[in-house]
């Protein structure tokens, strides 16, 4: 089976409408994202019905624009890849249905892609030389997990969050400080102005055996601290909170990498765009003989390039495609 000439990737699992076109397995020729962040900011989080309706309006136009950026016609597409889970069922259904419709109309193969696996494939686009085996830290608004990757397509989840994901905790803490959704980038910037030692926030499960995470208690500690000290400097709160989150992620991920005898750690997902996390993990990993990779920011946040890359890989190397009856899987795991 030959490599598909062009793969169209569609990602609509949450509040980003994203479309990309990949030539072969790793040559990205177009990658566009329409963010709905401003639409949901007034509500303090994503409203699924609003997200679904906006995907429905924007997706056809974004596909046309992506084809124009790539300089190809829709008839040149030879594989359609769309996220089918995990995520919000309404948004997933919009992207999945649109992708299946294009595949049917063109009479080309269709493949549903696991969003979490897609994040791991962002590394294949940005660092094609850093092949498995490696440990992957998938850290975003909805997920925080450590995944052993002996080969692309083979995954062993070795640690997960038992409550809030790191990105979710960041957004909730930001709301306490009056920072609009999504709060992560603003907290990252604010923390550089503060003292990360000012407030001794807890570092949940950092010393616990195993590689699971917990961030709900840390979020609660911030709430109680602000109630007791309402005049606390926001920059010190942000810096101290972020220091705790980064410390836990850093220690658990490097230890898991060493425990599984890997020499590479790949960090993916929206929180992987955090500058504090990037600086700390690269430095900490270097001191322990672990090479740490981060995709560029545009491939950390939800995007369709990673979906196209995962789809093209499975089609080429495993001959995989899916029936057009494939249903969305909101709770899909690796």
Can you walk me through this structure?
Helix content is about 45%, strand content about 20%. With about 325 residues, the chain is of the alpha/beta class. The chain has two domains: about 5-120 and about 300-320, ATPase, nucleotide binding domain (Nucleotidyltransferase, domain 5), CATH 3.30.420.40; about 130-295, Nucleotidyltransferase, domain 5. The strands form two sheets. The chain has a five-stranded mixed sheet, sandwiched between helices. β1 (about 5-10) and β2 (about 15-25) form a beta hairpin. α6 packs across α8. The two termini are about 25 Å apart. The model has no long low-confidence stretch (mean pLDDT about 95).
Query: Would you list the SSEs in sequence order as H and E?
Result: EEEHHEHEHEEEHHHHEHEHH
Shape: globular
- The chain-level mean pLDDT equals 94
Strand neighbour order, sheet with most strands: 3-2-1-4-5
* Individual helix count: 11
CATH topology of the largest domain: Nucleotidyltransferase, domain 5
**What's the structural domain tally?**
2
Relevant CATH superfamily of the largest domain = ATPase, nucleotide binding domain
Q: Please identify the top-level CATH class of the largest domain.
A: Alpha Beta
Structural class: alpha/beta
Counting DSSP E segments of at least 2 residues, the number of strands comes to 10
Radius of gyration: 20 Å
Return the CATH architecture of the largest domain: 2-Layer Sandwich
The percent of residues in helical segments reads 40-55%
Low-pLDDT segments: none
Strand content: 15-25%
| Quaternary class | single chain
State the distance separating the first and last CA atoms. Answer: 26 Å
């Amino acid at each position: 089976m030959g490599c598909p000439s062009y793969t169209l990737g569609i990602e609509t699992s949450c509040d980003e409408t994203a479309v990309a076109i990949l030539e072969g397995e790793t040559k990205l020729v177009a990658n566009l994202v329409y963010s709905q962040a401003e639409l949901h900011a007034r509500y303090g989080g994503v409203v699924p019905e609003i997200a679904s309706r906006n995907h429905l309006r924007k997706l056809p136009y974004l596909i046309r624009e992506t084809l124009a950026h790539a300089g190809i016609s829709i008839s040149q597409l030879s594989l359609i890849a769309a996220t089918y889970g995990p995520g919000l069922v309404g948004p997933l259904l919009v992207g999945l249905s649109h992708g299946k419709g294009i595949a049917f109309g063109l009479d080309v193969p269709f493949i549903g892609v696991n969003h979490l696996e897609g994040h791991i494939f962002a590394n294949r686009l940005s660092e094609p030389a850093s092949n498995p085996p490696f440990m992957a830290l998938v850290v975003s608004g909805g997920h925080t997990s450590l995944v052993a990757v002996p080969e692309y397509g083979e995954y062993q989840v070795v640690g997960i969050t038992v409550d809030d994901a790191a990105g979710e905790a960041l957004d909730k803490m930001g709301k306490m400080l009056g920072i609009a959704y999504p709060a992560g980038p603003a907290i990252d910037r604010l923390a550089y102005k503060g003292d990360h030692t000012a407030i001794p926030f807890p570092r949940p499960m950092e010393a616990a055996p195993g590689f699971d995470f917990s961030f709900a208690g840390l979020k609660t500690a911030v709430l109680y601290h602000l109630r007791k000290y309402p005049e606390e400097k926001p920059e010190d709160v942000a810096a101290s909170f972020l220091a705790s989150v980064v410390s836990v992620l850093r220690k658990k991920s490097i230890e898991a990498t060493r425990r599984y005898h890997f020499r590479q750690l790949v960090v993916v997902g929206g929180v992987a765009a955090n500058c504090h996390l990037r600086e700390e993990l690269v430095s900490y990993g270097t001191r322990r003989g672990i090479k740490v990779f981060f995709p560029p920011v545009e491939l950390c946040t939800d995007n369709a390039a990673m979906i196209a890359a995962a789809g093209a890989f499975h089609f080429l190397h495993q001959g995989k495609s899916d029936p057009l009856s494939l249903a969305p899987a909101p709770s899909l795991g690796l």
